[in-house]
Write a structure and sequence with these properties.
mainly alpha, about 35% helix, rod-shaped
């Protein structure tokens, strides 16, 4: 964007030719011409919408858990079946039950 402003300033204010600007700036004349005739900033538009995040469908459920709007709360503290959380903050530990995951 800065280069475009410099090119436009040299052309309109300092009255330099496109060829001279191209030589001094080491750009092609076509690039200089595009910078001069396009006054706006370049705009990026996505060709297709951004993909939905994996958490998207669960966002409302998580919001309700965090705001205490549901009595059940997250199942098993949101971790592996049979696991429990001890502590808080940096010293949080997850203690898994002995045996295979999901086994009762």
């Amino acid at each position: 964007m800065e280069q475009k402003e410099i090119i436009r300033r040299e052309y309109f204010i300092h009255r330099k030719s496109m060829r001279q600007i191209a030589r001094e700036r080491h750009h092609s004349r076509k690039t200089i011409q595009k910078a001069i005739y396009d006054p706006g900033a370049p705009v990026y538009t996505r060709s297709k919408p951004a993909p939905q995040r994996t958490i998207g469908p669960l966002r409302e459920i998580i919001r309700r858990w965090l705001h205490g709007e549901t009595s059940s709360g997250p199942p098993n503290n949101g971790i592996l079946p049979g696991a429990s959380i001890r502590g808080s903050g940096k010293s949080t530990a997850i203690k898994a039950r002995s045996g295979r995951c999901g086994e009762k």
